[in-house]
Design brief:
Order of helices and strands: HHHEHEHHEEHEEEEEHEEE
Bound molecules: S-adenosylmethionine
Number of helices: 8
Helix content: 25-40%
Distance between the termini: 66 Å
Largest sheet: 8 strands, mixed
Number of strands: 12
Number of domains: 2
Strand order of the largest sheet: 3-2-1-4-5-12-10-11
CATH superfamily of the largest domain: Vaccinia Virus protein VP39
CATH architecture of the largest domain: 3-Layer(aba) Sandwich
Radius of gyration: 19 Å
Structural class: alpha/beta
Length: 270
């Protein structure tokens, strides 16, 4: 009988590759917890992860505190099921009682108000118009307690609107970020994530996004238009030993460097 040998790409799971290459839920939640502590005197308990995908962050939130509860929201039932099977299943039964996933549009969540809403991995860039983004921000405002925070990440820099491919070595595979098409007239872009393996096999377009490259002033202005009282950009500091690298510490800022590529957080206060 002939043995069929699968390629590394055929054996791989794109969600595991994504979690290993794109997400860093620990440092993301370190930032969230530190920022909450700096701005609020009580403890945060309920966190809603919008566009939660595999609910990796929501799981980490419930792991971090016995009083922590998490809500994950995503439109895609398949990715939520993957998260249930692979991420929620790693929680204890008691921890699983403190997490709930909604297969819904983020615009349609009318659950009890939460302390923190997270929209990470630039997912809100999927709203293509000012009106659409304002409606989303306004709906998050309705979903927050009176001292709640909406925390977003964002990316930019002079390479962000370029059509280019950026490979990065990860353990056991190469992650390739592909800015395939950018339209300067409306700032809409098509981006893909590809994965490549040592045996030459690939998963092309493992994930694809059609989104708008929003700028920081646009985002902060729209947050205020939607009704938030304050929107602050948290900019990354510079590594002491290498001026080209960030130090992983994000602080409130009104001035940043004209870097080729940066990631920043935005914190909006109710
Ligand atoms: C950029 S991915 C980020 C996934 C997740 N944050 C992560 O890191 O694994 C965007 C996710 O948002 C979901 N999505 C897109 N539009 C949505 C909407 N209007 N409401 C809820 N989920 C949405 C997609 O199904 C997808 O899982």
């Amino acid at each position: 009988m002939k043995t069929i040998r699968l390629t590394m790409a055929e054996k791989a799971d794109r969600h595991i590759l994504y979690q290993d290459s794109v997400q860093d839920v620990e440092s993301e939640l370190d930032f969230v917890e530190q920022t909450w502590k700096q701005l609020r005197s009580r403890k945060a308990e309920i966190l809603r992860e919008d566009f939660c995908g595999t609910a990796n962050t929501a799981c980490e939130w419930v792991r971090r505190g016995a009083a922590h509860q998490a809500i994950g929201v995503d439109l895609d039932a398949d990715v939520l099921n993957w998260g249930l099977k692979n991420n929620l299943s790693t929680l204890t039964e008691e921890q699983q009682q403190r997490i709930i996933l909604f297969n819904k549009n983020v615009l349609d969540i009318a659950d009890e108000p939460v302390d923190i809403i997270l929209a990470m991995n630039f997912s809100y860039y999927l709203f293509l118009s000012r009106e659409g983004l304002r409606d989303y921000f306004a709906s998050t405002l309705d979903g927050l307690r009176s001292d709640g925070l909406l925390i977003l990440d964002s990316y930019g820099g002079y390479e962000a609107p370029m059509e280019l491919q950026e490979p990065r070595e990860c353990e056991g595979f190469t992650y390739i970020w592909d800015q395939a098409k950018f339209n300067p007239i409306n700032s809409l872009m098509d981006c893909h994530i590809h994965f490549e393996f040592k045996d030459g096999s690939r998963i092309d377009e493992a994930f694809s996004y059609h989104w708008r490259l929003w700028t920081l002033p646009e985002i902060t202005e729209i947050l205020l238009e939607a009704g938030y009282s304050k929107a602050t950009v948290y900019w990354e500091g510079t590594d002491e030993n290498n001026e080209e690298e960030g130090n992983g510490i994000y602080e409130p800022a009104t001035e940043g460097d004209a870097d080729p590529g940066w990631i920043a957080y935005i914190v909006a206060e109710v």
